[in-house]
């Protein structure tokens, strides 16, 4: 318990996935609140990130120096396609790891704001449930968990089918060597995309809690209009609105730090997925005369799910803001109070 109080309070489900992202070098921020411990942990994480980047870079250099072992050299178009995918993958990994190192302060601020917003909830949970409430946490973040494990398991199944169904032959061995080399890059982009989705879902969850609180306040004010309100009711409503407005400001700051931590790598990941899809599609039509290569294109199926997953998660997050504005205008005072009306308008503009 003493160790937990020395770190930013994060639910166990989220903390588990943060640990995973630290293992793959995509999370260099320390959740410790002690400056010395924080600095030591972040230095180790940065060194680990640079080590992984060095391994990826050496793999890329080896692939470029030994094209016959990994790349399709049967014609220039196929060679160009494979080389383009490798170069884009290396650039993407470089951007991911560089932004991870440079954006660790923004990422730490993101989770500090998250802990600030959940302080009261954490205290209440400790009083009611001393142990981590896993079922509730799994339910809260079920959208992210379904996307993360659904696409990952689907990708692994596709990989197993590809290796099990591949025919014998020299061309097949080159394809196998290429995918054994290229697969870590694919998973790196996939997991970075999942990390982005996780942070968007965290913001969505905070917006959803705020929307529910404002909806309760709106329901309470509607009830108060039908009965005699207590003395100071108008001041109470204004105080609650100010509290919710401050919460929204903190969530907006979380969004700001999220953009600081992931903006460039988000574009890099989407570009890598786009290049993979376009290049393999063009190559498929180029080789239409020799027949459609089912197995190689089977490996593209998980990539088709990456962008829709990100877009749908973002859409869900943006819809919460729209619902918050709707609930705000359902708040009614017991009398026509211009101060409350102005405060609601300011909140809506915010």
Automatic annotation (TrEMBL):
Protein name: Gustatory receptor
UniProt family annotation: Belongs to the insect chemoreceptor superfamily. Gustatory receptor (GR) family.
Function: Gustatory receptor which mediates acceptance or avoidance behavior, depending on its substrates.
Keywords per UniProt: Cell membrane, Membrane, Receptor, Transducer, Transmembrane, Transmembrane helix
GO terms classed as biological process: sensory perception of taste; signal transduction
Pfam families hit by this protein: 7tm_7
Membrane disposition: Multi-pass membrane protein
Cellular localization per UniProt: Cell membrane
GO CC aspect terms: plasma membrane
Entry's transmembrane regions: 45-65, 77-98, 144-162, 174-191, 254-274
InterPro entries with a match to the protein in the record: 7TM_chemorcpt
Protein origin, superkingdom: Eukaryota
């Amino acid at each position: 318990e003493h160790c937990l109080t020395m770190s930013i309070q994060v639910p166990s489900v989220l903390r588990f996935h943060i640990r995973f992202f630290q293992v793959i070098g995509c999370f260099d921020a320390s959740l410790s609140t002690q400056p010395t411990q924080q600095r030591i942990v972040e230095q180790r994480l940065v060194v680990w990130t640079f080590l992984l980047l060095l391994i990826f870079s050496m793999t890329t250099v080896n692939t470029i120096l030994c094209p016959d072992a990994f790349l399709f050299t049967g014609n220039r178009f196929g060679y160009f396609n494979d080389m383009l995918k490798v170069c884009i993958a290396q650039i993407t990994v470089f951007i991911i790891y560089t932004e991870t190192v440079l954006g660790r302060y923004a990422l730490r601020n993101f989770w500090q704001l998250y802990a600030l917003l959940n302080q009261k909830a954490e205290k209440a949970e400790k009083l009611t449930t001393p142990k981590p409430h896993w079922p509730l946490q799994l339910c809260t973040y079920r959208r992210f968990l379904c996307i993360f494990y659904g696409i990952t398991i689907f990708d692994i199944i596709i990989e197993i089918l590809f290796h099990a169904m591949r025919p014998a032959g020299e061309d097949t061995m080159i394809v196998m060597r290429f995918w054994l080399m290229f697969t870590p890059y694919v998973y790196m982009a996939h997991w970075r995309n999942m990390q982005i989705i996780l942070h968007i879902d965290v913001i969505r969850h905070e917006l959803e809690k705020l929307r529910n609180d404002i909806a309760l306040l709106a329901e309470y004010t509607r009830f108060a209009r039908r009965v005699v309100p207590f003395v100071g009711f108008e001041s109470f409503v204004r105080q609650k609105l100010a509290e919710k407005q401050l919460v929204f400001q903190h969530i907006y700051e979380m969004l700001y730090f999220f953009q600081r931590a992931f903006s460039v790598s988000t574009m890099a990941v989407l570009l890598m997925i786009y290049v993979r899809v376009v290049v393999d599609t063009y190559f498929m039509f180029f080789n239409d005369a020799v027949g459609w290569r089912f197995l190689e294109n089977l490996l593209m199926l998980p990539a088709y799910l990456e962008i829709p997953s990100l877009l749908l998660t973002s859409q869900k997050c943006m819809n919460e803001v729209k619902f918050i504005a709707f609930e705000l205008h359902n708040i009614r005072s017991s009398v026509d109070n211009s101060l409350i009306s102005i405060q609601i308008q300011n909140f809506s503009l915010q």
